[in-house]
Structure prediction request, 627 residues.
Amino acid sequence: MDSLRDLLKTKRRLVFLIIGLAVFVLIYLYPTPSGLTEAGKKSLAIFSLCAIYWVFDVLPLMITGLLAILLFPLMGILEAGETFALFGNQAVFFILGAFILSSGLLRSGLSQRIALLFLRRFGKTPRRLVLATLLFPALSSLFITEHAVAAMFFPIVVEISGALRLEPGQSRMGKALFLSMAWGCVLGGIGTYLGGARAPLALAILSETTGEKISFLTYSLCALPTVIFGLFFAGVAIMLFFPPEIDSVLPAKELLEEKIKKQGRISRRELAMGILMVLVIFAWVAFGHKLGLAIIALAGVVMGFVFKLLVWKEVEEDVNWGVFLLYGGAISLGLAMSKTQALEWLAGRSLSILASHPIILVIFLPTLAIFLTELVSNSAVVALLVPVGIGIGAKIGFDPKVIMLLITIPSGLAFMLPVGTPANAIAFSSGYYRIRDSVRAGLLVNIPTLIFFLLSAWIYWRWLGLGF
Amino acid sequence: MGEEKREKVLLIVSTTRKSPKSVERAIEYAQEKNAQLICLYVLDSELPKAIVKQMTEEGWLGGKPSEDFYNALLKEYERWGKEKIDEIKKEAEEHQIPFRAEIRRGDFLNQVLDFINQEQVNYIIVTRRRRSNLSRFLFGSAVAELKKQVSVPVEIIDE
Prediction:
């Protein structure tokens, strides 16, 4: 008994490291099935290895990405030059630009100022304060990565909870505030390409495997109704499960007043950074399809440095460059699977039930994504499901853009567990709620949001030219 | 009785292991034995470290925001620790029990074992988090490990 427990506890990584390798070797040595090329079989072996390592967190996500980049040329599936050229994908430069602009926005202090003003303006009663704590992160996560918003907003919510003397683990108001913060970030994060790394990654896989693209505006128009209704369901669930037990938020109001006063007048950097961000977002919406999202992002970055709104040292401290390794790995995985026709084979054989009817596929993919993302990193969910989904969809003539959206949007919707997304983990670390609180209430958000998402995909997307 | 001859009762609390029941029991036991009550509050770094790892590896945040978050979180945990210690101190004083406390930062088990070696306590009272038996079996329990590794009696109070 003890040995099994110890094995699971201390050797878990080693066990899955070996399982991944064993699966890889087994597929590699297995005679090539009919309909699958030798290169396709090798691609499947690498895909399985990466899937196991990503799902069971054997190696950091980016290192598994690096492993894929290493294995494709080594096994003769892709040329080394071709593999490394995938780092030049537009999405890589788009995410680079978006992360640098996010850093500038946060460092300028503008986002914190807006947060304080928003909470002071709208958080006048306990219920309104909870709703403001849900809405502000959601709005911010449309423009800045949701995890950065959570990290920025967390100390504010902690101070508010302290000022209101809410008891960690006991106070319903405390639970409501921290869950609102997390769910606001989660919901806002799915609204645009700027909410996190997964949507640009899905776009990169889509463009490399099919040559198709989805503009900034179209993606946002497809996702925003789910954001709005998700926020409604989240607000209802929070008020139902955790109705505030306090009557007044006066101490929080006083705290906000004091903090706003301490900030003083708006600085030139805050103002200019705000204007730059508005211009960049406008350009993404209006000219993104023509100029490319990456070009606009990089132009914004250059402007930021020209006007001294961005500081390289701060950018270096704020941006995690590991994301590019994950991108390189995941894009090469999608491309190799498609190029070697491994996706086609996979779709035709093992997943033929799914490909038998569009409705099954439309229900299955988002449901799998939404529940998988509770346990696995959402970038990993996208890296694994998007290429496979595109392969299955191609079998029945499904628009790959729809497949990408059906997987990418729900893959950000983790409400229940702290491991689902860093925003949930950050909120959970406050100690104000327990996992059972977020599971019970989160399920009440997950299911209606998923149903609404499916209905909007079925009815509304066709108006945007993305019918099925 | 001189303070050096009194028995030492150690009450262990941490950011994730605290319960009014264990405080009550520690006061009751220290009073019964006319012992000194020592409170060790461990600012458990296990959870913040796991979250920072998730922030950098999945949330793609850079070193600075992750570090700022880590420090903000530990500062908040320290505030809880001080409040909790003040609460216990007040109760101990009401019952005229000699009391002292220490806050330590780091891994729960290592910090507790280190403190016990240093203090030579006679009796330990510790809170156990509410978790399923399956979770304890699969992922282990620091409190169970503590009981295994020390020679003095350990009273475990469930949350």
User: Anything to note?
Assistant: Chain A has one domain: 2-464. The first helix of chain A runs from residue 2 to 10.
